[in-house]
Each structure stands twice: as structure tokens, then as C-alpha cells.
């Protein structure tokens, strides 16, 4: 294989900040990315994930902190001097150049000899499985093919770091799954180091070795997909990890990492994920999968069913409690809309978080 | 075979209105009518009238006499070269100036303000610009006086009533138009393309050369044509700022003289037709060369 990515040990973001006027889009982002890692930057829109990526690529200057590639500082370099490969959300293929010319663009800018360039472009074409399409213009390609060209163009310059900015968001659902697997395959085959921006937790969970959850320009949690999925550190991370039911209540007791909440008179106990003090407000977060329709009893709350949808293997229902909390739950039997049922969750599956302080915390 | 026949025959196909609408004709199409009438009255009719008139020489003779006279009289046929010698360099220079300015303005936040300032000369009109230039660049104008005060020159430069006076005036009145067109083409290009080129290692010049320029060429061709046509029909500034009997005797002056000094409308029409065909020739040549360039959408993704 002639495409051999530049090797290094780590990329380090050291308290990177980016201000837009008075707005702090990024605040003190510190992160170390090791060689061959697949890192996903995950967060809702406006959280600073794309800003982070653009700062690493050099498309946006940082306003504070530094970015290091091993021992050399890169945040002071222009993007063309950094040599990171980037895949853009809209692919940004050169519309006047055919597939081969698009992929070869970076090599041509570097003055790579023709023979070597041809060899590398052919290999990149094979890697993204686009042989036979070399002479087409980007406008003649489907979305998935354009995506492949964008990836090939980014990796053929043998970058130490591959940056991807929501590369799948313009594809339809089926193609998205297919390309997701392709991206991971290419990452593995090349032994690449990838930073991948997404707002889709499924993508992040399935692709990444480690996930960085961002919110309001601040790192909220860094961890493996399993860590984040099973043990989100904050309510907003939990929200992102599929804990869609959030019940606000008063802390009644805290003991041995367990907390008991009073939610509308019902006692809900769960695993305390943050420091809690009795009497304070807190949230119990529960996944739809962990709620079951059952009888009154411990860890159960009365709700009125709003809708029930048939989903093949199960039903998905929505409901609301007397206090106005909305619920999403799954059920194996149909329940009548308008009826009152009890939703119950195992206390081991309930996570309890302190109420977020107003604004940024 | 009977089994395959439709059970009931359809008596009515789509109505005439539906069929017309399917071909793009509906009530809205009627809105074109006033514009069509206007262009017929104000453009096509006078053009056709002039065209016919040009083949009816005032002095008699055969139908091509006017054209023969034009191309045998150096005083007349040289106006083509003189006009081109003004219009082509002015247009090229304007385009050359407009591109870097447009690239800079594209990134500015106060774009509107700067654009307004740059566009102001359009509203001034040629005559006002000519007056201004006569005062400013004249032998006693600020420009010459300043240069003389600093001892850079000992005698005033002759900058008006010659080629350069007309040149400057055309440049000033033509620039805003060229600039606005150029700006619209430049801003029409997806900035992600430049960013992509940068991450791929292209420096500023390479990004311009390999990304912007090829995508802008068709737009530049159109801009050139429109600006050129404006400059080619130069009349007031050639009279006011140039030497209308000598170096800047442009083709429109020849036409005006024939029509309004010799009262030979037929000859005037013939010159106007020749002027039209020269313009058309250049425009067609430039537009045809567009075929050599990429002409699709200037963005990186499917629309």
C-alpha cells in the first residue's frame, strides 16, 4: 500500500478558545487525541463542535490556547501548511474537475510527480471503491459517490489527521448506514486518526473509539461509547444518550450512591450520578426501553397514555403525568390511549442528576 | 385482445388549458405581452427601419453604396479601430481592477456601504464625470498643480482632450458596472471550495488559479461583453474629453456627424449597423470561447 499516513503520537488541544466578538464559541477545550484513534465530537447544533474542527483544520484562528502535533505547534500555521485532510459537510468537491482531478488536487498542489500521483490516486479510488468513475464530474455523481470522492481526496494527501464535519448529514437514511460502515472500514484499513463531528449519537456510538460531548463550547464528558452510554456524567449528556424521560423531583435521601426522589408524591430511586443533597431539586433520567407498563408500587408513577404506535416488535407510547412530565415508553402490549397506567423502572436503570444551574455550568 | 382494451373509453383528454399549461403557457404568460410590444416598438422596429434605411443611399447609387463609402474612406473606417483601441483596453483594465476589489469586498461585513460608494459614479452620469475630469486633470487642475508643486514635473501633463482623457472617463464610469457584475459572480462561489483547497495544501495563489479562476471564467466573459458594449458606444466623453476630430474620433461620432451634420440618415444608419456588427462579432467570439470552460453550478454539492 503506497498511501501511508504520516505518523505521530498525539494531537493535543491545550485550552483552546474561540471567541466571536463577545460570544465564546469555545472555552478552554483541552483534549488529547492519540494515534489511530477515532474521536467523535458530539453535541447539539451550536455547541462548538464544528468550530473546534475548523480551529484544528486552521480555517478559523483560535483566540486562545494552542494546538500541538507532538512537539510542534500547529495552531499558528495556515491551513495549507498543516496538511490535515478534511471532509466537508457539503463535500466541497471542485465542480469543474473530474473525480480523478479532484482526488489528485492535493498531490498536484504539492508538486507530486505524475507517476506517483497516478499510483496514489488509483489506490485512493480503489480504497473508496470508485474505480470506473474517474472521468465523471461531481455533478454526475450520486450523493454517496460524492462522499467517497471527498474522503479519497482528503486521505490521498496522507494526512496525520483526518477531519470530518458531519459527512453523513446530506445522505438518506439507508446510505448513511452504508457510508458509516465505509468510513470506519477506511479508517481501519489506513490506520488513520480521525476526528469526526456529528450531532447524531448513533453515529458517534457506532463509529468512535472515544466520544467528546460538547455543549455551549465546553467539554461535558469524554469517554468510550460504553462509558457515555451507561454512565453519562451530566443530565444533558444523558439526554443525548437516549435518556428521554426526565422527571424533576426533590431529593429525599442519598445513601451509598443511591438517591431517592419525590416525584409528584411517588418515590423514585436510582443511581446518583452527581453530588446531591437532601431537599434539593434533581432529575431522574430513564430510557424509554427501561420503562415498563405495570402495577402501582415502588419506582412506579401514574400516567395518562396519549398515543400508542405499532412498531412491529413492540409498541411505542407517549404519556403524561399529572404534574405535566412527558413520557416515552415501549410496551409489548397495546395500551388504550386515554387510559391511566403505571410506568415502572428498575432502580438500577434510573440515573439521578442534580438540577443544572441556570446558564452555563 | 379485447381483454386488454380499456373498459371505458375516455371521451375527454386534458382540456386545452391543461395542455397549454403543461407546455408552460398559462395566464401568467400573458404578462410578457406588454414587454414584448414595448421591445417591438422601441427596439425591433427602429432597428429594422435603420437596417432598411442603410440600404437606401441618400445620394442614390446601388444599395451597398453607403457601406462601400464607409470602407473606402479611411476617415470613416479608421473609427472602428479607434473605438476598439479605447473600448478593449478599458474593459480589460476594469475587469482586472474589479477582480481583486471584489475578492476583498466579498469578505467584508460593511459590504453594502463600500458597494454604494463604488457604485456612485454610475449615478453621476458621463457628462458630470467629464466636467470633473476636465477640471481635475486639466493643465491648471489639481493633479498637474500638485505634481508641479512637488517638482515632479516642470510642465503640465496633457491628460485631457486626448486619448487618456477619454480612457480615464470610460474607466471611471465603467468600473462600477464591471465591479458589481464581478462581485456577484465571485460571491456566487461556495466558500467551502476555497477552504477545501486550503486544507489540501493550495496557497492563496493556487486557490485563485485552480479553483476560482476556472469557475469564474464564464462570468468574466459575460462581464467583459456587457462592459465592452458600454465602452464601445462611447460618445459624450469622446467629444468632451478627447479629440473628436483626431485620435478619439470613435464610430458613434462618425455616425452622429453623418446623420446630424450631413443630414444623411441613410449613411448614419449604415454606420450604426456596422457598429452593431462589430460589437456583435466581439461578443459572439467571447461568448463562444466560454465553451472552453466549465459552465455548471459553482458549488461543491448537488443543489
UniProtKB/TrEMBL annotation, chain A:
UniProt organism field: Microvirga aerilata
Keyword Transport found: yes
UniProt topology in membrane: Peripheral membrane protein
Entry's family note: Belongs to the ABC transporter superfamily.
Record key words, sorted: ATP-binding, Nucleotide-binding, Transport
GO cellular component terms attached to this protein's record: ATP-binding cassette (ABC) transporter complex
Highest taxon above the source species: Bacteria
Location (main, coarse): membrane
PROSITE patterns in UniProt: ABC_TRANSPORTER_1 (PS00211), ABC_TRANSPORTER_2 (PS50893)
Localization annotation: Cell inner membrane
Keyword Transport: yes
Coiled-coil region list: none
Domain (ABC transporter) ranges: 11-241
Xref: InterPro entries: AAA+_ATPase, ABC_SmlMolc_Importer, ABC_transporter-like_ATP-bd, ABC_transporter-like_CS, Mo/tungstate-bd_C_term_dom, NA-bd_OB-fold, P-loop_NTPase, Transp-assoc_OB_typ2
Protein name in the entry: ABC transporter ATP-binding protein
Pfam families registered for this protein in UniProt: ABC_tran, TOBE_2
GO molecular function: ABC-type transporter activity; ATP binding; ATP hydrolysis activity
UniProtKB/TrEMBL annotation, chain B:
Subcellular location per the Swiss-Prot or TrEMBL entry: Cell membrane
TM helices/strands, residue ranges: 27-48, 84-105, 117-138, 163-186, 211-232, 270-293
Entry-linked CDD domains: TM_PBP2
Superkingdom classification of source: Bacteria
Keyword presence, Cell membrane: yes
Record-level GO BP terms: transmembrane transport
Main location: membrane
Protein name from the UniProt record: ABC transporter permease subunit
The organism of origin for this protein: Microvirga aerilata
Amino acid at each position: 500500500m503506497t498511501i501511508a499516513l504520516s505518523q505521530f503520537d498525539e494531537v493535543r488541544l491545550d485550552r483552546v478558545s474561540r471567541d466571536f466578538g463577545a460570544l465564546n464559541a469555545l472555552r478552554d477545550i483541552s483534549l488529547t487525541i492519540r494515534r489511530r484513534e477515532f474521536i467523535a465530537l458530539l453535541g447539539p447544533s451550536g455547541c462548538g463542535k464544528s468550530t473546534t474542527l475548523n480551529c484544528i483544520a486552521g480555517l478559523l484562528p483560535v483566540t486562545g490556547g494552542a494546538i500541538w502535533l507532538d512537539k510542534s505547534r500547529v495552531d499558528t500555521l495556515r491551513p495549507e501548511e498543516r496538511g490535515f485532510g478534511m471532509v466537508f459537510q457539503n463535500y466541497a468537491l471542485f465542480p469543474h474537475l473530474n473525480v480523478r482531478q479532484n482526488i489528485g488536487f492535493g498531490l498536484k498542489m504539492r508538486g507530486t510527480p505524475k507517476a506517483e500521483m497516478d499510483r496514489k490516486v488509483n489506490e485512493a479510488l480503489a480504497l473508496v471503491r470508485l474505480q470506473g468513475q474517474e472521468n465523471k464530474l461531481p455533478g454526475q455523481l450520486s450523493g454517496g459517490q460524492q462522499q467517497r470522492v471527498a474522503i479519497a481526496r482528503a486521505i490521498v494527501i496522507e494526512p496525520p489527521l483526518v477531519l470530518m464535519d458531519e459527512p453523513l448529514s446530506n445522505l438518506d437514511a439507508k446510505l448513511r448506514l452504508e457510508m458509516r460502515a465505509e468510513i470506519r472500514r477506511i479508517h481501519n484499513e489506513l490506520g488513520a486518526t480521525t476526528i469526526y463531528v456529528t450531532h447524531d449519537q448513533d453515529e458517534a456510538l457506532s463509529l468512535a473509539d472515544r466520544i467528546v460531548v460538547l455543549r455551549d463550547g465546553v467539554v461535558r464528558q469524554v469517554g468510550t461509547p460504553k462509558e457515555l452510554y451507561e454512565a453519562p456524567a451530566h443530565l444533558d449528556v444523558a439526554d443525548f444518550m437516549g435518556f428521554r424521560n426526565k422527571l424533576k423531583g426533590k431529593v429525599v435521601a442519598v445513601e451509598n450512591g443511591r438517591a431517592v426522589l419525590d416525584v409528584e408524591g411517588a418515590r423514585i430511586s436510582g443511581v446518583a450520578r452527581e453530588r446531591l443533597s437532601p431537599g434539593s431539586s434533581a432529575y431522574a433520567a430513564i430510557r424509554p426501553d427501561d420503562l415498563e407498563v405495570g402495577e402501582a408500587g415502588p419506582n412506579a408513577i401514574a400516567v395518562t397514555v396519549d398515543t400508542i404506535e405499532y412498531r412491529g416488535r413492540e409498541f411505542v407510547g407517549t404519556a403524561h403525568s399529572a404534574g405535566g412530565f412527558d413520557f416515552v415508553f415501549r410496551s409489548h402490549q397495546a395500551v388504550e390511549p386515554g387510559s391511566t397506567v403505571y410506568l415502572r423502572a428498575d432502580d438500577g436503570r434510573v440515573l439521578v442528576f442534580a438540577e443544572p444551574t441556570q446558564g452555563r455550568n | 385482445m379485447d381483454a386488454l382494451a380499456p373498459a371505458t373509453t375516455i371521451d375527454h383528454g386534458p382540456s386545452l388549458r391543461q395542455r397549454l399549461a403543461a407546455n408552460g403557457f398559462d395566464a401568467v404568460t400573458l404578462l410578457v405581452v406588454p414587454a414584448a410590444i414595448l421591445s417591438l416598438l422601441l427596439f425591433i422596429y427602429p432597428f429594422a427601419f435603420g437596417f432598411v434605411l442603410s440600404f437606401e443611399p441618400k445620394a442614390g447609387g446601388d444599395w451597398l453604396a453607403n457601406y462601400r463609402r464607409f470602407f473606402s474612406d479611411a476617415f470613416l473606417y479608421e473609427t472602428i479601430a479607434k473605438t476598439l483601441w479605447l473600448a478593449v483596453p478599458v474593459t480589460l483594465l476594469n475587469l482586472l481592477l474589479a477582480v481583486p476589489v471584489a475578492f476583498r469586498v466579498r469578505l467584508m461585513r460593511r459590504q453594502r456601504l463600500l458597494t454604494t460608494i463604488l457604485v456612485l459614479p454610475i449615478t453621476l452620469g458621463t457628462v458630470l464625470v467629464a466636467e470633473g475630469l476636465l477640471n481635475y486633470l486639466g493643465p491648471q487642475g489639481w493633479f498637474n498643480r500638485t505634481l508641479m508643486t512637488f517638482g515632479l514635473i516642470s510642465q503640465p501633463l496633457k491628460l485631457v482632450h486626448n486619448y487618456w482623457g477619454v480612457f480615464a472617463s470610460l474607466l471611471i464610469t465603467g468600473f462600477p458596472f464591471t465591479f458589481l457584475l464581478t462581485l456577484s459572480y465571485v460571491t456566487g462561489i461556495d466558500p467551502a471550495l476555497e477552504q477545501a483547497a486550503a486544507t489540501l495544501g493550495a496557497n492563496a495563489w493556487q486557490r485563485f488559479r485552480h479553483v476560482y479562476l476556472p469557475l469564474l471564467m464564464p462570468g468574466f466573459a459575460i462581464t467583459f461583453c456587457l462592459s465592452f458594449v458600454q465602452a464601445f458606444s462611447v460618445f459624450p466623453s469622446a467629444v468632451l474629453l478627447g479629440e473628436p476630430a483626431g485620435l478619439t474620433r470613435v464610430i458613434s461620432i462618425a455616425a452622429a456627424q453623418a446623420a446630424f451634420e450631413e443630414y444623411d440618415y441613410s449613411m448614419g444608419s449604415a454606420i450604426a449597423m456596422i457598429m452593431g456588427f462589430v460589437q456583435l462579432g466581439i461578443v459572439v467570439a467571447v461568448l463562444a470561447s466560454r465553451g472552453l470552460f466549465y459552465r455548471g453550478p459553482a458549488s461543491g454539492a448537488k443543489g
